[in-house]
Amino acid sequence: MYDQIFIFLAEEEARGGLFDIGATLPLVAIQFLILMFVLNTILYNPLITFMNERNEYVLDNLSKASEMLKTAEELKTQYENDLALTKKEAQREISEAQKLQKALFETEINSAQEAINGVVETSLQNLTSKKEAALASLTSEVDSMSTRILARVFTPRVKA
Known about the structure:
The chain contains two helices and no strands. By secondary structure, the chain is mainly alpha-helical. The longest helix is centred in the middle third of the chain and has 131 residues, at about 25-155.
């Protein structure tokens, strides 16, 4: 029984051989074209449109981001320039304030020194006048005491 099957399979048909063009080849070609059309309309076209929209969105965002970056750089340089100018102005104002404060301090020191010198001068004058008055009173007291001492020393003593 197996022999008959092998013999049946081994028999060569004289029709078409390797390339047998029959009704199945156009059917397979039509099926392939229909499948390609269906896949194209159902899957590929929506996917391609979605990818194109996504690409446009990404490019749009990239262009906006680059514009924002450029604007940010411009603002940064402007603020850095403004900051440098402000720092210079602040340093100038600080140095002017220090000079003014130093001048005021020297004026105050000079006026205080003059006031102290005046007080010292009046104190010295007062002390000098008091010293002269004290010396004058001491001189008069010493003179009166010396005259009394001399009068006692040179006056004869009477014994009682």
